[in-house]
Amino acid sequence: MTFDFDRIDITDLSRHFGRRKAVSRVSLSLRSGDILGLLGPNGAGKSTLLGMLATLVAPTSGSVTYGEAKASHRGEAIRGRIGVLAHELHLYPELTARQNLEFFARLHGIDSQTLVPAALESAGLADRGEDQVASFSRGMRQRLALERALLHRPRLVLLDEPFTGLDDRAVRIVSARITALAADGAIVILATHDLDVAEGLITRMAVVRNGRLLSDETASGGVRQRYRTLVESA
Amino acid sequence: MRFFRIALLVLKKDFAIELKSYEILSTTLFFAVSCVAIFSFAFVKEGEAAVDAAAGILWIAIAFSGTLALGRTFERERYGETLKALLLAPAPRPAIYLGKLLGIVALLFVTELIVVPMVAFLFQAPFFERPLLLVALLGLGTLGYAAVGTLFAAMLVRARTRDVMLPILLYPITIPVIIAGVRGTSALLASPVDEPVATLWIGLLMFFDVVFVTLSLWTFEPLMTE
After folding, report:
1. What is the largest CA-CA distance in chain A?
2. Which of A 148-177 lie inside 8 A of B, CB atoms?
3. Based on the number of CB atoms within 10 Å of its own CB, is B125 exposed (0-12), middle (13-18) or buried (19 or more)?
4. How many Å from the N-terminal Cα to the C-terminal Cα in chain A?
5. Predicted ipTM of the assembly
6. Residue A225: is it exposed, middle or buried by C-beta count within 10 angstroms (0-12/13-18/19+)?
7. Rounded to 5, what percent of chain A is helix, strand, coil?
8. How far is B215 from chain A (nearest CA, A)?
């Protein structure tokens, strides 16, 4: 039976690099359908936190539990349910859009025959599938990278600045995609500086600064104001 | 089976990328051929090659061009941080290592197909008197060297000083492989061929390969987790 989970629990999670505390004792619980805005200034520890959730960064202390499982015991199965769109796009520029998607589909052990054309369509690149990714604009790469991250229908979706390089129309399309993912039961964690886009998209906001979690609350409008209050008063 | 399927998938992906440009193959070959040519200017005087020089020059060319290939191969994975994407796959992480290792080994075998006849010709070295022993020496030596090199190149992919650090880390660790390769090849070039000595070095290379490949497969996942 395929491994799955409907919640993740982050307990006292810390990551230190030498004396620097990139993430310090962060605790959060997320459920299926949540869209968590992970907000904070540069160097706040957002990417390190996402890295730990993605099982790429080992915590110094604390734990992440995916349903009932921990990465130390079921790493492969957990990774099969995680989709990551990082600041770097995880695409091979020498390969075509189709070859990139087919490679990652096979790596995840899924049938690429039907999924890849659908993903190209979803990225708005159906007619550019045979073109090398190196010839794409940043926005096109970003859309393709998002589809690459979602190809295996992940339960936990980790997005690090997914709106970088996108025009207004593409931002609306990606936002709608994120909302649909959550409606389908995904847990979405969105690290962004774009508070205008986050407003109305996220259902919860977690503000981090200097590796510490300042706030974890429902996002009920006024995200920018609340963020400023929290970060400037910290 | 899944382990090997993932390794082959990574290998095929690397081939597909290389076939677009032949960038790594051409630079590695050019470097290896240049290396042998320069040594031939120094060690071949009036058509006579220096005694025992051929074996050393062959292995220097393999080691140096191998370092270049390792660096370039992982430079590709650094751009776009695709190595992270590989590590994020629901696959045994050592299979990713094996796929990268097979790619490097294949690349070095192609280089050797050109370099070995070139050294044989320029240094009048009778490499092909015991072809099976030569293939065993080259195959096992290349595997041992690439096993350590692939691990280090993957580890250093995030380091700013990776170009400097790779040879500094790689050469001291792989000295036993290089010594075994040079000594074994020298035994093949002796007149008459010193088969027992060549076989002894092949045995040692087998031992190094088992140790290096096992250790690399075992340590790849913890070393790649930040």
Report:
1. 53
2. 148
3. buried
4. 46
5. 0.84
6. exposed
7. 40, 30, 35
8. 20
Give the amino acid at A163: F
Nearest CA in chain A to B91: A76
Q: How confident is the model at residue A234 (pLDDT cuts 50, 70, 90)?
A: low
Sheet strands (E) in chain B: 44-45, 48-49
From start to end of B52-155, where are the E strands? none
Pairing relationship of beta strands A204-209 and A212-218 according to DSSP bridges: antiparallel
Chain B residues with CB under 8 Å of A148 CB are 85
A94 in contact with B at a CB cutoff of 8 Å? yes
pLDDT at A1: 55
Domain positions in chain A: 7-81+154-233, 92-153
A200 within 8 A of A179, measured Cβ to Cβ: no
* φ, ψ (nearest 5 deg) of residue A206: -120, 120
CATH for A7-81+154-233, among 3.40.50.300, 3.10.25.10, 1.10.3720.10, 2.40.128.710? 3.40.50.300
| pLDDT value of residue A144 | 92
Interface contact B226-A54, CB threshold 8 A: no
Spatial contact of A79 and B88, defined as CB atoms under 8 Å apart: yes
Is the CB of residue B89 less than 8 Å away from at least one CB of chain A? yes
Mutation site, B13, B25, B96, B100, interface A, largest A CB count within 10 A? B13
| Interface contact flag, A86 B84, Cβ < 8 Å | yes
Q: Which residues of B touch A107 (CB under 8 A)?
A: 6, 9, 86, 89, 91
- CB contact B82 to A (< 8 Å): yes
Report the amino acid identity of residue A29: S
Of all residues in chain B, what percent are helix, strand and coil, respectively (each to 5)? 85, 0, 10
CA distance B29 to chain A (A): 21
Kindly report the nearest CA distance between residue A220 and chain B, in angstroms: 33
Confidence check: pLDDT of B77 > 70:
yes
pLDDT in tens, B14-55: 999 999 888 899 999 999 999 999 999 888 887 787 777 899
Residue A27 CA to residue A10 CA, distance in Å, equals: 5
Amino acid at B57: I
Name the average pLDDT for chain B. 90
Distance of CA B129 to the CA centre of its chain: 23
Q: Domain ranges for chain B, please list them.
A: 2-224
B225 CB within 8 Å of a chain A CB: yes
Q: What is the DSSP letter of A153?
A: -
pTM, rounded to two decimals:
0.86
Exposed/middle/buried for residue B52 (C-beta within 10 Å: 0-12, 13-18, 19+)? middle
